[in-house]
User: Which sequence fits this backbone?
């Protein structure tokens, strides 16, 4: 019997509570984070994808599956496909009036994601963090944050293996008198600051907190400010990267800054 996938679980939770905005947000967050297998009508030509289109009541859908076993079960024979993160696919389809036919006929999470939902997801993921000028004046233990945000942060940082070592969440009062919360990330790998900041921003967005804000700062382990936040902060330990001996070419679309093109 096939194991339930994280996307199956998120979809089931959304279906069980149709009026629960938090459950719906968690499903779309999982959809964005999952590597999806896009069924193609022909083998890739360079960096161009030609996806198989599924028509339902005059609406076009791209066929995607959350495992190679599921796409094989649907097709029943060898077929070309491209494995891409859901966030990349949403960005490629945004504005084209095309939806996602997810796990159709092969899984309990079979679902037609309408074009407007794909566009919303792409737009939500496209709003990145903004830089601020205020400087921290006082630090204190975090307080009053909803459990949904703490769980979302823990999940996002848990999937950032190898990008940094630790993160500390603290309450902060700034030199302009404003108050909020700050996440200090230590030991960030070169070039990882942008992806980590976006991951934290998405944790805030998908936790369903309206008008919420969470500041992020990157620190070295020897920074004096690191010692200050470590004394009062809630610590998150990021996992070590999994060591792999085999080297393979990066698949098309693995770099969100350079997605493949749709035909």
Assistant:
């Amino acid at each position: 019997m096939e194991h339930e996938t994280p996307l199956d679980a998120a979809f089931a939770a959304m279906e069980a509570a149709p009026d629960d905005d938090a459950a719906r947000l968690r499903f779309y967050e999982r959809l964005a984070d999952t590597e999806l297998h896009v069924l193609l009508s022909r083998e890739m030509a360079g960096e161009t994808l030609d996806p198989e289109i599924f028509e339902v009541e005059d609406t076009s859908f791209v066929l995607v599956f959350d495992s190679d076993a599921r796409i094989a079960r649907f097709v029943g024979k060898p077929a070309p496909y491209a494995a891409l993160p859901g966030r990349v696919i949403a960005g490629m389809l945004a504005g084209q009036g095309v939806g996602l036919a997810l796990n159709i006929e092969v899984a309990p999470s079979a679902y037609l994601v309408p074009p407007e939902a794909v566009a919303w997801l792409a737009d939500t993921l496209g709003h990145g963090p903004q830089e601020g000028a205020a400087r921290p004046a006082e630090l204190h233990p975090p307080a009053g944050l909803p459990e949904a945000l703490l769980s979302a942060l823990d999940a996002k940082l848990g999937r950032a293996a190898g990008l940094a070592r630790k993160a500390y969440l603290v309450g902060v009062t700034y030199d302009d008198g404003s108050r909020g919360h700050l996440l200090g990330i230590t030991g960030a790998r070169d070039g990882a600051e942008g992806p980590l900041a976006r991951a934290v921003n998405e944790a805030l967005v998908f936790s369903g907190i309206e008008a919420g804000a969470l500041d992020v700062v990157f620190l070295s382990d020897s920074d004096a400010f690191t010692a200050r936040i470590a004394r009062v902060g809630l610590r998150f330990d990021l996992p070590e990267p999994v060591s792999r001996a085999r080297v393979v070419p990066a698949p098309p679309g693995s770099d969100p800054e350079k997605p493949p093109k749709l035909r």
About this structure: Residues 6-126 form one domain. The first strand starts at residue 35 and ends at 39. The chain has two domains: 6-126, 136-237.
